[in-house]
Design goal:
The protein has 2 domains: 2-221 and 404-419, Aldehyde Dehydrogenase, Chain A, domain 1 (3-Layer(aba) Sandwich); 223-389, Aldehyde Dehydrogenase, Chain A, domain 2 (3-Layer(aba) Sandwich), CATH 3.40.309. Helix content is 42%, strand content 21%. It has helices spanning 14-25, 27-30, 37-52, 57-66, 71-79, 83-93, 126-136, 152-163, 181-189, 200-209, 234-247, 265-286, 291-311, 370-383, 408-411; strands at 2-4, 7-9, 99-101, 105-111, 114-118, 140-144, 171-174, 193-198, 215-220, 223-228, 255-260, 314-318, 321-325, 339-344, 360-366, 387-389, 413-419.
Length: 422
């Protein structure tokens, strides 16, 4: 589906609308119109409250089922669009007041202009949220839908426009395949910045399609992990296991594996056995992943066992979940869907994580000692981790928190300084 100036079109109209886009896209800029933040917040708040009261269950229920999201988790997500949350977010990220500098210049925040959002498909509501952030900063937004999009993004954004029709000139949604590089480049040429959600390949592809005067803002795929001391409690391990099962390790903030704060194999093994017990309990409590993913994981783990003589990996697996012990200390993506690696990484070697630079995101520190938590958090922050939490809060959503260590609304803005003529 396509959303163009408040109207929904079938994909058959895409070429015609893409041809019209250059003449329509800049109308707010050409006419000197600005989108007020209060307009966006009012519309989001109205829509969020309708979602929370069940107005859109025909689309939200399948979304929750597909991503194994509980009612409570979904409510937390919807509340991110409420007035209270968005006003707090804007108060943290934006400085809208015009300031006078040395009595001779004003300093003021402006939107970048036009943002092209190239969204990832790992969370169905993410494309719409990315556009909302662009709107809050006052930008005109073009959204390229991810492959396999369910239609939720178009539905939510269209409902937003119905609440506040003035938003219609600031939102354009196209279902352009990633293979259609000609049309994506056309959209990129019209934009001041490309907002990319995805991994290295997505960012590289965006760079090849963007001119040198088009900014790239990447929210790339990140890797998150737990740093666990042998003295951690079983309750902390339970919370970590439940977090892994709830997210199925699909989010950038999801735990992919565990670094044990030791250089001793026996402590690594003991921790892995303890955690495996909690992972099985969480899997049973929260419900197993789909049959298709269990079958895929079974094949993957079978291959791991066949190759274990070569790799030296030790595998604990049961009921579709697994823990793989490895002798290396590399940070890597897990097999996902409740399959976790466990590796040794003594405190004095945490600096080795620096090699992963821009891939680092969230780390949960599990220890029974508060001073150890603080010391470890400081060390992880030094090497590049941008969010440090306790066991069960790796993937929590807080209004006003940064994306991968940066504030999105600031990235979508620019500062204009204007001389005051006497």
């Amino acid at each position: 589906m396509i959303l163009y100036r408040g109207d929904v079109y079938d994909n058959s109209s895409q070429d015609e609308l893409l041809d019209k886009l250059p003449s329509d896209l800049y109308s707010p800029i050409n006419e000197g119109r600005r989108l007020e933040i209060s307009t966006v917040i009012d519309a989001c708040d109205s829509l969020a409250r309708r979602v929370l009261t069940g107005d859109f269950k025909e689309i939200t229920d399948p979304f929750m089922a597909e991503f194994n999201i509980s009612e409570e988790q979904f409510a937390d997500m919807a509340k991110m669009f409420t007035r209270e949350k968005l006003e707090y977010k804007c108060s943290i990220e934006l400085t809208d007041d015009k300031k006078v500098i040395d009595g001779s210049f004003t300093r003021e925040r402006y939107p970048l202009g036009v943002l092209l959002h190239i969204a990832a498909g790992n969370v169905d509501v993410l494309p719409a949220y990315s556009v909302v952030e662009g709107l809050l900063a006052g930008n005109i937004n073009i959204l390229k839908l991810p492959m396999g999009d369910s239609g939720l993004s178009v539905k939510l954004l269209n409902e937003l426009i119905k609440v506040s029709p003035e938003i219609s000139d600031y939102v354009y949604v196209f279902d352009v395949p990633s293979t259609d590089t000609e049309n994506i480049k056309h959209l990129a040429d019209l934009s001041d910045a490309i907002v990319v959600w995805g991994g290295d390949m997505a960012v590289r592809a965006a760079r090849t399609m963007a001119d040198t005067n088009t900014k790239i803002i990447s929210w790339g795929h990140k890797l998150s992990f737990a740093y666990v001391y042998p003295d951690c409690t079983d309750d902390e391990l339970r919370l970590l296991a439940e977090s892994i099962c709830v997210t199925n390790q699909l989010l950038c903030s999801s735990c992919q594996g565990i670094f044990v704060a030791t250089d001793r194999k026996e402590e690594q093994k003991a921790l892995a056995v303890r955690f495996f017990s909690k992972l099985k309990e969480a899997n049973s409590k929260l419900g197993a992943v789909s049959y298709g993913m269990r079958a895929k994981n079974a094949i993957t783990i079978y291959n791991e066992r066949l190759e274990s003589d070569t790799t030296g990996h030790e595998i604990l697996s049961e009921d579709g979940v697994s823990v793989i012990l490895s002798d290396d200390s590399s940070l890597e993506l897990s097999y996902l869907y409740r399959n976790v690696w466990v590796k040794k990484l003594p405190y004095e070697k945490i600096g080795e994580l620096k090699q992963y630079k821009d891939y680092l995101q969230t780390a949960a520190v599990l220890t029974s000692d508060k001073e150890t938590f603080a010391r470890t958090a400081r060390r992880l922050g030094d090497v590049g981790v941008v969010r440090i939490t306790s066991a069960g809060k790796m993937s929590r959503m807080n209004s006003g928190e940064a994306h991968d260590g940066m504030y999105a609304l600031r990235a979508y803005s620019r500062i204009v300084e204007t001389e005051i003529l006497n």
